[in-house]
Amino acid sequence: MLQKFIIALLSLTLAAVCGAWGYSAWSRGTVALVVTPAGASAPVPVAEAAPKPVARFAAANSASGADFSYEYVAPRSAALLPVYERVRDADLLRKLPEIDTLDGLLVLPRPLRYVTAECKSADAFYLSAKGEVVLCYETLQVLHEQGQALGRDNKLGDEFARQYVLANTRFIVAHETGHALIDQLDLAITGREEDAVDQLATTLMQRFARADESPQQVAENLRMAGNWFLARAQGQYNLDAYADEHALGEQRYFNLQCLIYGGNPARFVNIVTDGDLPEARAQKCPDEARRAGRSWLRLLLPHVAPKYAMTEAKANRFFMQQEHARARNAEGPYLR
Fold this sequence. Notes:
two-stranded antiparallel ribbon
C-alpha cells in the first residue's frame, strides 16, 4: 500500500511552500484568514495583521475568543540547532492555517500555548497541566529526512520535502490541538479520543485550507499525513500495541483515506480504483465523513466567541462557498 501511495505522489503538482524548510515567503507578511467555526480559510498577505473577516456575520461589539501564544525553545543538542533556527526565524507555528484560524475564535477557560522544543524522541503531545501543545524538533527532523528520501527516490525534487514537512506538521499540530480542546472544553467524546482528534485534524485541513490550495492539493496534503502513519507502522505487533490508545498505523492510514474519499467520492474515486481503500469500506465513507464533520462542528459551535458566532446552517453554506472559490482559483493562471 505504501508503494502505491508513493507512486501516486509522482503526479503531485506542488505549490510553493514557506517557512522552516522553504517557508520563508510566509514570513514576509501576516496571513489573514476568513474564519468560521469550522470553515475554510482565505489568506491575504498584508503588511500587518488584518481582522478576521468573519466578523461580518456577528455583532460588531461582541467579544473575541482567547488568543494563543507561541514559543520556540532553544534545544540543548547542537544537532537540532538548525531545525530550531529555521522554525523560529520563519515563525512556523503562527503560519499553520488551521491554528491561525482557531487563534482567537474560541472561548477557552485557560490560555493555550504552542511550543517547539527538544524532546529526546520524535513526538508531539498536549500537556494539560501547562496548557501547552508541544511539537518536537526531532519530529521535524525525521519528517524532513523522510521527505528528502521520498523526493530523491521518486525524482520529485527538493520542493517535495518541504511540502511533506508542512503537510505533516499541519496534521500533527491540529491533532494535538484536538486533545487540548477536548480537555479544556470538556467535550463529550464517545469512542477512542485518538480517533476523534484524527477526524478533527482532517476536518480542519479540509475546511481551513488556504485559498490557493485546490481540493486536490488539500487531499494530497492529507495523503502525505497518511504516509507518516505507514512509515511508523511496525507490521508486526504485540499485546501492548493492540491495547494502545492509538489505532495501529495501518488503521489510521485507511481511516484517513476514508475521510478524504468520503468528503468527495466523485473527485477522489482514484483512491478506491488505485487500491488505497477497499471497496467494502469505501461504501460507508461518505456517511463517515459527514458524521465526523457534523459532530465536530456541533461540538465546537457553542464555544465560538460571540464575535464570530453563526448558525450551523450558515457555517455549512460558508464552507461550501469557500470550497467553490478554492476550486475556481486553482483553475486560473493567477489569484485575485
